[in-house]
Amino acid sequence: MTCVSSVEGVKTKTRIRRAAEGQWLNVAIVVVTAILFAVAWPTLQLTHQVSPPIQPFVAALATFPFLLIRSNPALAWAVSAISALVIPRVFALQDGYDYPWQVVHILVMLALLAAVSMRAAIPVVGVAWISTVLLFLADTPGTNGRGWAVGLTAIVVFGLLIRWLVLSRRQLAQQEELSELERTRRTILEEKARIARDLHDVVAHHMSMVVVQAQSAPYRIAGMSDETRAEFESIGAAGRAALNEVRGLLGVLRSDGQVAEHAPQPGVQQISELLEGSRRAGIPVSWHTDGDPRHVSESVGLVMYRILQESLANTARHAAGAAVEVTIAYETPIASVSIVNGPPRRSLVSALTRHESTGGNGIIGMRERAQAVGGVLTTHLHDNGGFEVHAEFPVASA
C-alpha cells in the first residue's frame, strides 16, 4: 500500500504541473487571438472592399482559427486555408493593395502551419504543406509565390525539427519519471526487507523461547499437576500459532535484492545477556570467548548478536534438549562465532515439534547479514544429528 501511494503521488504531481502549464497556454492563446482580431477588424477596410456589417465576420474568419492552435491545429489550419481561398474571390482588393489576404491572416496561416508540422500526423503535415504552397503560388502577385514556397518549406522543416526535439525530451522525461518511481519502489522494498529481518530476529526468537519454556516445563519441573500441564500446553499452542503468523508475515515482507540495514542496538555487550537468557529458558548452553570485544565495530557486533540469537532459536525449535556449545573469538583482523548443538533429546522432540512448521528464512537471513559486513557464514550437519553454524567477519566491517 505504501509503495502504491508513493508511486501515485509522483504521478499526481506530474499531472498537476502539466495541467497548470496548459491553463497558462490557453490563456495566452485567447489573449493573442483577441489582439489579432482587434487589429484585423479596423484594418480590413484598408485591404478589401467589405461592407461594415460584414467586416467583423471576415476578420473572425481570418483570426479565430488561432484559438484551436493547441487543441486541434489541423482543423484550425483547414478553416484558415479555406477562408484564405474564399476571401479574395468574394471580396475585391482595395486600390494599392496587392496581396489577397490581410497581414494578420497571413501570420495566422503561418503559425497554424508550424503547429501542424509540430503536432499533426506526418501525412496531414504533407497535405498542409503542399496545399499552402499551392495557395500562395496561385494567389500571391508576380514571382513572390516562389519565395513564399521556400519560406513555407523552411517553416515546415523547422516545425518537424522542433517536433522531434520535443519528442526526444519527452521520452527522456518519461525515463526520468520511471527511474524515480523505480527508486521509490526499491526504497520501500529495502524497508520491507529490514522489517522482515527485525521481526524474524527479535519477535520470532523471543516467542520461540516462550514455546520452549512452556513445552519443556513438564519435563523440567517435577510433581506438576494435570491442570498445570494443560495450562503450559495451551501457552505453547498459542505461541506456535503466533509463530506461524509471524512466518506468514515474513513471507510477504521478504523480497529479492534485499539491502541490509543495521539497527544501533544490540551488539557484543548484550551477547552474555542473550546466552544467560537462553540458559534460563531451558537450553543447555555453554560458551567460551577469546579476545577483546572492543575491537569489533558496531555493525559486526550487531550481526554476531543476530546470528547467535537465530542459531539458539533454531536449536530450541529443531533440536530440543540438545546441548549447545558457543565459541566466540574477538580476534584481529577476523572475528568469529561458532554455534554447535548435539542431537535433540528424543523425549522432547515429539512434544516440541509435532506442531512446528519451518519458515525457511533463518539461515538465509543469517547469511545475508554476514555478507552485508563482508563476512562469510557456513553451516554443517553432523553425522550424529547435530548442527553447526560458523561465521567469520572482518573486525572493521566493509
Automatic annotation (TrEMBL):
Cellular component terms (Gene Ontology): membrane
Sequence intervals crossing the membrane: 24-44, 75-93, 99-117, 148-166
The UniProt record lists the keyword Nucleus: no
EC number: 2.7.13.3
Residue ranges occupied by any Signal transduction histidine kinase subgroup 3 dimerisation and phosphoacceptor domain in the UniProt entry: 191-256
Pfam families in alphabetical order: HisKA_3
CDD domains, sorted: HATPase_UhpB-NarQ-NarX-like
GO molecular function annotation: ATP binding; phosphorelay sensor kinase activity; protein dimerization activity
Classification via InterPro entries: HATPase_C_sf, Sensor_HK_TwoCompSys, Sig_transdc_His_kin_sub3_dim/P
UniProt catalytic activity: ATP + protein L-histidine = ADP + protein N-phospho-L-histidine
Enzyme class: transferase
The keyword Kinase appears for this protein: yes
Keywords, comma-separated and alphabetical: ATP-binding, Kinase, Membrane, Nucleotide-binding, Phosphoprotein, Transferase, Transmembrane, Transmembrane helix, Two-component regulatory system
Cited SUPFAM superfamilies: ATPase domain of HSP90 chaperone/DNA topoisomerase II/histidine kinase (SSF55874)
PANTHER family cross-referenced by the UniProt entry: NITRATE/NITRITE SENSOR PROTEIN NARX-RELATED, NITRATE_NITRITE SENSOR PROTEIN NARQ
Protein name: histidine kinase
Organism field: Rhodococcus koreensis
Organism ancestry: Bacteria, Bacillati, Actinomycetota, Actinomycetes, Mycobacteriales
